[in-house]
Specification:
alpha+beta; 18 strands; globular
Length: about 280
């Protein structure tokens, strides 16, 4: 009986200490650039899941014990901020029940200033859904990390296809975990990764939202683009479609306007493309 009374007397104290400790830790959460944004956790492709220790990523905010990945997938959360402890960095998220969890940024697959590739921003997901029932033009259909199909012979570069749905999953450390389900004219389907937005360097166009070889450009230009060749006189858009985004851009401003130097790194060699008034004027291999 005395033992029960003792336990009853110290239980409120233990609860107080735990709550106080949790509050104290929450005071150390710092704002980050994603604070307040709604996210969901993507499902993982099986072979990709086997490459990394994804079950050692999530934990409760006040605990060191890891929670299996599957308990978080396909659910929505809000990003609260970041938390650092013992040289470890975490993104802090909150679920609909106001429970706090932390996502380790020491998984070796991503940098501290970049969100893990399995996080899906709701804004990105909604923007991708705007493409449903529209046409897009495919790019590199042989890129197995960014284009998936069971009918490889049904698809080719610059092919026009219809977008039918948006799917969330991840198979890579890079790129959005958001995919467009596309249908060819013969009814065969595939998945193409949603394009990165607002960046002009070091990324890929997995598809185009406008015809990449319009008639008004003429047969000569369009043949060069289809053969993946950039040539003097092309616009920056034509060069980008032909050979992709550059690895680096140097911009120079003067009273005559802005000129750009696009730099591509290939096989330890740099190639420079100089643009004036949005026209390619010089190539230095």
């Amino acid at each position: 009986m005395q033992f029960i009374k003792f336990i009853s007397s110290i239980f409120p104290l233990i609860l107080f200490i735990n709550c106080f400790g949790s509050k104290f830790q929450k005071n150390k959460i710092i704002p980050n650039e994603w604070e307040g944004q709604s996210i969901r956790i993507a499902d993982l492709e099986d072979s990709y899941k086997g490459k990394h220790r994804f079950n050692k990523v999530f934990s409760k905010f006040s605990s060191k014990r890891f929670i299996p990945y599957y308990k978080f997938r396909s659910k929505t959360y809000n990003i609260i901020g970041s938390y650092n402890k013992n040289d470890k960095s975490f993104i802090i998220i909150k679920d609909k029940k106001a429970r706090y969890f932390k996502i380790s940024q020491k998984n070796g697959n991503y940098k501290n200033n970049v969100v893990p590739s399995f996080l899906v921003f709701e804004e990105t997901f909604e923007n991708a859904k705007l493409l449903i029932n529209t046409k897009i033009w495919l790019n590199n259909v042989w890129d197995e990390e960014n284009f998936l199909t069971e009918f490889p012979n049904a698809f080719y570069p610059f092919q026009s296809v219809d977008v039918k749905d948006v799917i969330v999953f991840q198979n890579s450390d890079n790129g959005y975990p958001v995919w467009l389900k596309i249908i060819a004219e013969n009814g065969e389907d595939g998945l193409v990764r949603y394009n990165t937005q607002g960046v002009r360097e070091g990324i890929k166009d997995h598809y185009f939202t406008n015809d990449p070889s319009p008639v008004e450009w003429g047969n000569k230009i369009n043949e060069k683009i289809k053969n993946r060749k950039a040539d003097i006189g092309m616009s920056s858009r034509q060069v980008r479609i032909a050979i992709g985004y550059p690895d680096k851009i140097n911009s120079t401003s003067s009273r005559h306007g802005v000129s750009e130097q696009w730099i591509y790194f290939l096989l330890n060699k740099k190639t420079y493309y100089q643009f004036e008034y949005d026209k390619l004027v010089y190539i230095n291999h």
